[in-house]
Amino acid sequence: MTANQSTAADSEATVLTLRQVAKAALTVLSQQTQTLQQLLSQPQGLDLEFSKFVLDSHQLAGKQESAAPAAFVLLKSHTQPIEKSQQYAKAASTQAAFILTEIEPEALGYREQGSDYACPVLYVANLRDILGSLIQISLLPAGSLSRLNSVDDILSLLPQVIAVTGTNGKTTISQLLAQLCQFSSVKQLQNSAVMGTAGNGRLDSLVQASHTTGDALAVQSFMRKMADEGVDLLALEASSHGLDQQRLQGVPVTVAVYTNLSRDHLDYHPDMDDYARAKARLFDKAYFPQLTHAVINADDEFAPLMIETAKNSGVKVWLYSLQPDFVEGSNIASDATFIAKTIEPSLDGVKIEVETSFGPLTLNSPLLGRFNVANLLAAVAGAVALGIELDAVPDLVSQLHGASGRMQRVALDEQGSQPEQGVFIVDYAHTPDALIQVLTSLKSHCTGNLWAIFGCGGDRDKGKRPLMAQAGLATADKVVLTSDNPRSEDPQMILQDMQQGMSDEQHAKTTVIADRKQAILYAVEHAGAEDIVVIAGKGHETYQEIKGVRYDFDDRLVLQEALIAAHSAANIPNQ
Length: 575
Hints:
Elements: H1 3-9, E1 16-17, H2 18-28, H3 33-40, E2 49-50, E3 53-54, E4 71-74, H4 82-92, E5 99-101, H5 105-108, E6 121-123, H6 131-138, H7 151-155, E7 160-165, H8 170-183, H9 187-190, E8 192-196, E9 199-201, H10 216-228, E10 233-237, H11 240-244, E11 253-258, H12 272-280, E12 293-297, H13 303-312, E13 316-321, E14 336-346, E15 349-356, E16 359-365, H14 371-386, H15 393-398, E17 408-409, E18 423-427, H16 432-443, E19 450-454, H17 464-475, E20 478-481, H18 491-498, H19 504-508, E21 510-512, H20 516-526, E22 532-536, E23 543-546, E24 549-552, H21 555-570
Parallel strand pairs: 3-4, 4-5, 5-6, 7-10, 7-11, 8-10, 11-12, 12-13, 13-14, 18-22, 19-20, 19-22, 20-21
Antiparallel strand pairs: 1-2, 8-9, 14-15, 15-16, 17-18, 23-24
Helix pairs in contact: 1-10, 2-3, 2-6, 6-10, 8-14, 12-13, 16-17, 17-18, 20-21
């Protein structure tokens, strides 16, 4: 069971009616009065008792947790035909108290009279505008509904939320933010948790998630669970899918962070502009009314869109930049800046002199890579926006550790013993831009050969495949193309796609090994003592998905086992 499923399943069931929930929502969702009134004008179903909302019809089956059945929420599918929705709805109607949907009843074959549905179907065209809040209210502790008189009443029952969006850096920044808050002296921030790609929960007990941003029920259930456990600050990753589909509706985001935008998810978004517009929603108070600060990477091509969106919403804009000569222009004026004036990287970390609107900072970060300087600046700015004093930041930064599977140096043991074969690093970089950043950051420290071992995921944007290969070839001295998560595709076909357009010279420095474990073993066997080897694409993942099956596979463990075996073999005395 994934974290998204378990949090939904573990929610306490209470008996409610939709009328009760919708009326309570009117007190906290003043900007959605019209949509809520449309819901309250439904001719039937409003006073039927239900125990909880479910978005998966399979959760209607089995033993009931309450005397009342669950309510089934049916949303439009982005991948399946309407016939599937009809099938789900009719099957669910035999077990649900009612069906709440954004799909027109006629399309589902539903009629109020003479229908073969066994329960009422309630249609709200803009359901996603209120769904998160409806679920949030339904999950409140018993007796809370009658005490909701304003939005502050419900905010007092939830953690403060900081959200991070962008193609790369979301996981690292969210985890750095959680650490900074945890280490700080600000009591109302110390009990922190994260929600995102690498898992959900407190940093020392993350539970693997199925999506970067879960569905509205998963998000709200997890947030309720964290509130019940006393979490004060939740740092979450906001994916473009999640923002576009309004999975975060009702989440009280006060600080929003933008990292960067590069090619990814173009199997979902028609183009980069659409991808950017989805990200920009995070900086719009029409979607996130509690938003006070937008922390934005001024060096990114799409920063102006994020800045304009935030400013039009009356949100404070704080910019960060790695350009030491950064000067604000009229189109990127801000309320505060965090500028890296000097950067001194090494294989042990990086020293950064930072100029901020609140005073200078000298940071000694244990994080590897120039791109992690940008991630750190974003996290520092976010932490200050949350209320951490600037003077406390240097000491907090020195205590940080990187997110699992992000520029993670793999050693022989827990004591950090290093292998003879060189430096081995596992990273989640799975876009051309991220791979270039990782390799470029390490190139200046490499006195031998820089290796890149990576692949491309199956059933995803095929146009990205040759770009990934070129990204690796542009910087690495030796490239090993291998499998990532092939999913339903033939790994050999993916590898062929990656090699499109490669020159003879590029082929000469490329080795193709479809089996990922064998590719890692090959690198360990052939790397020299001065080499740096980057195994990219999967990072924290503990599986490899092949033909619908997720097999146990962790780059870090496979690599460590190979390094230990090579170390042992090298130190066996001659007989």
